[in-house]
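Hi X.,

You mentioned you wanted examples for the new student's onboarding notes, showing what a folding record looks like when two proteins sit in one file. Here is a clean example. The first protein comes first, with its sequence line followed by its structure tokens.
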Amino acid sequence: MPLETEERNVLIYSFISRLQNMRQMGDYDDLFDWAEEDVLPKIPQVEKLVCKLKKMTVKKTLP
């Protein structure tokens, strides 16, 4: 696997890990709420990630 692919994978996994941590912290409404300025910048990144995952899924399911 080329180095740039590995680096990209690390960035993707780090981003997913951060989103998961944010979701878990947000599950406890009485203890923690995310501010809009923390969440809004992540939306475009999440949309790009979802598109990439959809493309990967389609490629793997095509004969």
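Then the second protein repeats the pattern, sequence line and then tokens:
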Amino acid sequence: MTMMGRIRPRSGAIAAVAAAALFGVSACGGGSAEDSGDKVSATVPDNAFRAKADIAGATSMSVDARFKKVDNAADAQLLAPGVDLHITGVAQLDTLTAEVYADLAGTSPGVDREGKPVKEVYPAKNQAFYAVEYSSDDPQWEPRGEIPDSVASVVVNGNDVAEVLRTDEGTMHRGTIVASLPADSAPDSAVLEVETDGKFQSLSLLDGHRVSSDVEQVYEVADRDVKVSSVDEFEKNFTGWTGDKQRIAGSVADAFVVPWLHRRDGGDGWAGSGKTYLSVEMEWAEFSATSFDETTMHLELDNGKTVQPGNDPSGLKSAFKDRAVFQIPADTKSVTVVVEPQVTVGAGSSAKKHTWDPFGAKIAISGGKG
């Protein structure tokens, strides 16, 4: 698979640390380095077949290598709807088998000068081979509905090299990437990059750590627990347009936080920079269409600021047919839900408006990996 010319947009903080310390053990894949600190094999036969420079891609062939396990640090992960991506192991290889090379290049290395089939392929001059194991699963973000398509690609020096996985083909992925890279490559120069709903994130192929993210707030709110407490139970009666007795009643039932929410669920894709969605569900009674439920909901943050919902949760017979969805700062620990009940009976100048004291609930947000 040869390098393509399209340049992806780049953004986010770039790590500048060296990758050499990662390779504390030697790796083998047709040949292994005696000194793993030596980025390029010291002994290459004069008649060696060398790979094309910067060749890279996922391979379905077995790669015999001693992989260095990537640590379980908070930044050794990439999250998106349907994506929980980790680079689990990295190895440096002196050579590739002819079969692995053919799988990457799409063509066999052929025969050597003596007419014998090439069995080992050496990296291009001043380059080194790396093998990377990866895995991805669905993080199961609420509300467990439709997710956007995500595409993961190998990107070298800003150029797409090969597509590795797509969530429209499933959310469980396991595989191996092989890349020929300059021996002095920095961690951010060769990455596994994921695009989801117009946002880009990437993990370094050299050390497995996250080097960029357009949605860094994801890692502050991932796996947050939400607890609803101090719930007020509201119930009142009022006289309808025909003189009948009607009832308005309900309470806050549930809530969750999530960094991406489908428009069908009241969101707008990714939450704004530094923010997350808080989705609040109400148990709410419906009543006659001749009475208009104009009940509203807002949030009060600990700093005294008020947040209005970004969607309209009302329906024909209920103010809360759908969940009310808010965007709040990603570091929010608690909010107060305030519901202001109001009903208008009839229409025109004879319409009568009923209002009652506000009620609500407390929401505590805790945990996560931030």
